[in-house]
Design goal:
Strand content: 15-25%
Radius of gyration: 21 Å
Shape: globular
Oligomer: single chain
Number of domains: 2
CATH architecture of the largest domain: 3-Layer(aba) Sandwich
Number of helices: 10
Helix content: 40-55%
CATH superfamily of the largest domain: P-loop containing nucleotide triphosphate hydrolases
Structural class: alpha/beta
Amino acid sequence: MTISALTMALWLVGALGMAIEIRKAKRSATKLRLLLTGPSGSGKTWGALQIAKGLGGRCVVIDTEQGSSDIYDSLHSFDVVDLRPPFTPEAYIEAIRACEEAGYEVIIVDSISHEWSGKGGCLELVDDIAKAQFRGNTWSAYSVITPRHRAFIDAMLRSPAHIIATGRAKTETAQVEDGGRKKVVKLGMKTETRDGAEYEFTTVIDLVHDGHFATVSKDRTNLFVGDPKPISVETGKRLAAWLAAGHEIPAPPARSAAYTRARSAIVSTPISETTADKFRTRIGALAQDGELTADEAADLLNLVGQGVQ
C-alpha cells in the first residue's frame, strides 16, 4: 500500500467510526509466488517443472514458447495451455482463470516476458495506443497500459494456486577462465518485463546457464542462503515445507458489488491526474455511504495511484 493510500485508508476508518486493530505478527500458510529468470537455455522451464514436482499437486503450464514444455513430458506429469499471440495481459488473465477453475494446484506461467515485450504485448500496445489516441505520445499511452499490466500481476498474486513464473533475461556473453582455459559463457541480465515486477514475488531465482545453478536476488524464505545450488525436485519439497509451516490459510475476504464495479472501471479507464481525482472522490463517497469497507477503499485508491502516469 502506498503512503497516500494508507493515509486515506486511515482517514476512512476514522470517518466510518471503525476501531483500528493492532495484532501480533504471524506468518500464515500461503501459496508460492516464485519467479525464475535467466537467459535462453538456462533451464527456466526445466527448473520450474522440477520445483512443481517437489511441491506436489496437479500442475499446468501456460506455455508461450510454442510448446517447448512438451519436451519435458517424462520429467513430470503436467498439462499444457498453449498461449499464442497476441500476448495481451487479458489473454494471460483468461488462461490463469481457466486453470484455476479447472482445479490446478500449481500454475507455471512460462513466460511472463511475452506479456511485456512479445507480439501483441504491452510494449506493442503502447505504440498502437499512442498512435491511435495520443498523437504518438507513448508516455500518455502508458496510462492505458499500466492498469492492464497491473491486472495481470494481480491475477498471479491473488491466485489460489501456487504460481511459478519464468522470465527471459537479456543475454550477455563473457569470457572466463576454467581450468586454465578460456571459454565463453552466457550471463543473464535484466529480466524482460516491466521494472519492479520482481518485487511482487516471494522469491526470485536467477539461473546460471551452465548446470542450472540458482543464485537468488530476492528470498523471503531464507532457504537459499549460502553457495549457489542446482535446482532440483528437492528445491520444491523444501519450498512446500516452508509454505506449510504457517497457520491455516484464511479465506480471501468477500468483495462488495461496489468494489467490483469500481475496480472494473479503474482497470478499463485511462487514468490522468484529473481522472484519478474523480475516482478518489467517488471512492471516498462510497466509503462514507458504507458501500465500501476501509480495506476495499484503500485497495482501490492504491490501484488508482498505480494507474497514473
